[in-house]
Design brief:
Shape: rod-shaped
Distance between the termini: 93 Å
Order of helices and strands: HHEEEEHEE
Structural class: alpha+beta
Helix content: 10-25%
Strand order of the largest sheet: 1-4
Number of strands: 6
Radius of gyration: 42 Å
Number of helices: 3
Largest sheet: 2 strands, antiparallel
Strand content: over 45%
Length: about 170
């Protein structure tokens, strides 16, 4: 298999598809959590006592007196707490692959000779050992890195109640 084929075999479309599906699943979970938080903040049983106003009066002698308006019961969402919604704004996949292919050939030749001579007799032997060894090696190293960026976004416009203020106080002169 060639190095080019190794690179082509990287399942990049599968990685991108899995990233997209993972982000979609995570986004759905984030949205579900934000809606649950909103329902908790709007729960009438979780009302808190809020002092809507304080009046600071500076007396002629320089003393300062404070008086509080009667406390009212409000849900956290009426107080102004809002759930936070998040959105994935970008995702990046980095893949690095190092492929190293090696081939080596080893040949060993050994020759030994032996000669014997005596009176009227002579003999010789030659032996040869040949060994041939071929080695293939492949090293593949890879790393991948996934980065996502999550940013807060305002709640959907129709999800939060419109707040209208009506001031029925009489102007003071």
């Amino acid at each position: 298999m060639t190095v080019g084929q190794e690179l082509l075999d990287v399942p990049l479309p599968d990685m991108v598809a899995k990233l997209a599906i993972g982000i979609a699943d995570a986004q759905a979970a984030l949205d579900k959590n934000s809606v649950a938080t909103m329902n908790t903040l709007a729960d009438d049983e979780k009302k808190i006592s809020v002092v809507p106003s304080l009046t600071r009066t500076i007396k002629e002698d320089g003393r300062v007196e404070y008086s509080a308006a009667k406390p009212v019961e409000m849900t956290p969402i009426q107080v102004g707490l809002e759930p936070t919604f998040y959105q994935f704004s970008e995702a990046t996949i980095d893949v690095t692959m190092d492929i190293k292919t090696t081939t080596s050939t080893e040949t060993d030749v050994s020759v030994s000779a032996e000669a014997k001579a005596g009176w009227g007799l002579w003999s010789a032997s030659v032996s040869t050992d040949v060994s041939h060894n071929r080695k293939f090696g492949k090293e593949v190293e890879g790393t991948s890195h996934l980065t996502t960026r999550l940013v807060p976004v305002p709640p959907p416009e129709n999800l939060m109640p419109a707040v209208m203020t009506v001031d029925e106080r009489q102007p003071t002169d």
